[in-house]
Amino acid sequence: MVREHIDTIDALMARYVAGSLPAPARVLVKSHLEMRPEARGFVKDLESLAGEALEAVEPEPIGDRDGALQGIFSSNDIVLPMAPEKSAEDAADLPAALRDFIGYGIDDIPWRTKMPGFKEYNIGDVDGCTVSMFWIRPGRAIPAHTHHGCEITLVLRGAFSDGVGRYGPGDISVADDDVDHRPVAENAGPCIGFAVTDAPLRMTGSFRQLIGDLIG
């Protein structure tokens, strides 16, 4: 994603352990690990393997040591969106990492309707990614699409299915240009999630299906 291609959950977790994910993707993974504690074991195993691999590498002298240090200290920090004031009670229904990132409780998000049955809170462009929250009405289908880059999605409430799999609270969906899907929210309740993309989507499917999905 942005720096490296990601097409599976394992690849996403490996990039997380390596520290190479963009800031919003790190927030997404941290939130997933909070919601799904059982996934932390896999991350710990990856960290152990990375540590063993690092210990096996022969040390090499650093060329231009002073220049390297200057580059580190002069690099710009990632600027995250300014979060509004919030109370612990209002925000207690979101994972801590995501709560701190967006600054809202899940029921206080300032949604904007994008099409019938679909609302979005566009957080903006952060660290080379487009970041947003979404709300999908029960039974609502999102128009079929594929991806010019990578899209990772964390489900917070409800669930959706897309022909590739079913994703409920705490699940991550990873989609790239090999995935052409049409997410549909389950009927039990609205589907709410957090999405991070590094390139625009491309609509697919028939014109008739697209019009039907846009109308909702």
Secondary-structure element series: HHHHHHEEEEEEEEEEEH
* Counted beta strands: 11
**Which whole number gives the mean pLDDT?**
81
- The CATH architecture would be Sandwich
For the record, give the distance between the C-alpha atoms at the N and C termini, rounded to a whole number: 31 Å
Rg calc: 19 Å
* CATH fold topology: Jelly Rolls
Largest sheet: 6 strands, antiparallel
The share of residues in extended strands comes to: 15-25%
Can you identify the CATH superfamily? Jelly Rolls
Proportion of residues in helical segments:
25-40%
Overall geometry comes to globular
**Backbone structural class:** alpha+beta
Number of domains: 1
What order do the strands of the largest sheet run in, or round the barrel if closed? 1-2-3-10-5-8
Name the poorly predicted regions.
52-57, 75-91
CATH class: Mainly Beta
Tell me the number of helical segments per DSSP (H or I, 4 or more residues long): 7
Could you write a compact summary of the structure shown?
The protein has 216 residues and is α+β, with helices and mostly antiparallel strands. It has helices at 9-18, 23-35, 40-56, 65-74, 88-91, 96-102, 207-215; strands at 112-115, 118-126, 129-136, 145-147, 151-157, 160-161, 166-167, 172-175, 184-185, 191-197, 201-203. The protein has one domain (1-80, 87-216): Sandwich (Jelly Rolls).
